[in-house]
Amino acid sequence: MEKRNHSVKGPDCDRWRKSVRDDRGYNSREAYEERGPYGGDGFYGRDEFRGRGPYREEGAYRRRPFRTEGSGRPLPRRMRERGAAKKRREICFLILCLLLGANLLLLLDLRYRIGGLDRTLDQTVNRTASSVREEDSVPETESQTREDVPNPTYGSAGSETGDDIVDYVSQCGLAQVDMPMDRSPEEVLVCLQELSQDNEQIAEIYKQHSRYSDDMLKALANNPEMADFVINSLDRDARPSYTGLSELERSQDYPLFLQWDPRWGYESYGDDNIGLSGCGPTCVSMAMYYLLGDESITPDAVARYSMDNGHYVMGTGTAWALLEEFPETCGVSVEQPAASEQTMKNALDKGGVIICSMSQGDFTAAGHFVVIYGYDSDGFFVNDSNCVARSREKWEFRRLEWQIKHMWVYYPMQERRN
């Protein structure tokens, strides 16, 4: 019989020295060969027989190692510790990610609040400057104000032009309008009550506020310039019959079209009318007139095209597709570069006109479109179809940058430059 050296280490020796127990509770070669080295209830007898051979029948010392549930093979202690350590690392990593996410949200909220404080400070400075100018007013004050933007010719407030079309920009324009806010119906009434102390038309509207829609009152609370438009919305006889441009507007290179101008503001558009929902068509109309000089492309004409071609989304507003599709039908090319100060200046230097989709901020409490048609060392010239006061300001890029969601640049086809 071949003599075996049980002191030899290695796989063969290890397998030879493992022992198992069969169902009858004893060790044997037959049980080992039948059930394998890890059979039965998982006894692992490596080096436990202390030199007596692998099949000792009596007095064998055995230990029962830890074994996972449902497994016939035991897990070493080191492996269990590694698994527990891995779970702890995963939990710590998850907690760290949650903390980082919370910190990011806090930073974004802080940035938004700082931006709001910055805008409030700018408005306060502008109001202070306006008050100083009013106190030190001289006959040249009006001309100085008109030189702020490249559209210096406004008629006297309440006057009519030679062709009997009211200059609505000067009639309704105010020196300052606060930043729009998303107010509840109760907050709207409180705001209108405050405004009614200085405005007779708003006072009349406030007395009969139940006759007006919530959207109409909310728009008025955000922009008191709309008082005449709102009060005449109940009186069809007070609406003008003309729809064309005035001689004053024809004389300007970049006239401001107001979406709530009575020439087209009461026309139905989407959920309501152009005056409340038509900033998109009005901006497209302005851009096309600046580039082509076509007086037939009025805001109501663009609004009809938008409705006929499904470019108004109920409950949302004008779809961006209108700003791409309609200009191309007029022979105007459209580009959509990323918004940056240099890109905007380059486009304007080439004779282009820009329309920007704006997020909540200085121009809107929800969503809005504005036209940018020029710039100088003090900022960009913006025509806001919803507000005369904001259209008379110059806007630094740092004030516009965080509000611009998307930008379209328009050029006449024959003048497009790459």
Structure overview:
The protein folds into 3 domains: 11-75, no CATH class; 86-130; 160-180 and 223-415, Alpha-Beta Complex (Cathepsin B, Chain A), CATH 3.90.70.10. 42% of the residues lie in helices and 10% in strands. The chain has 17 helices and 10 strands. The strands form 3 sheets. It has a 6-stranded antiparallel beta sheet. Strands 1-2 form a two-stranded antiparallel sheet. A hairpin with a 2-residue loop joins strand 7 and strand 8. Helix 12 crosses helix 13 and helix 12 packs parallel to helix 14 (321-329). The chain starts with 10 loop residues before the first helix and ends in a 6-residue tail after the last strand. The model is unreliable at 14-27, 38-70, 137-147 and 152-162 (pLDDT under 50).
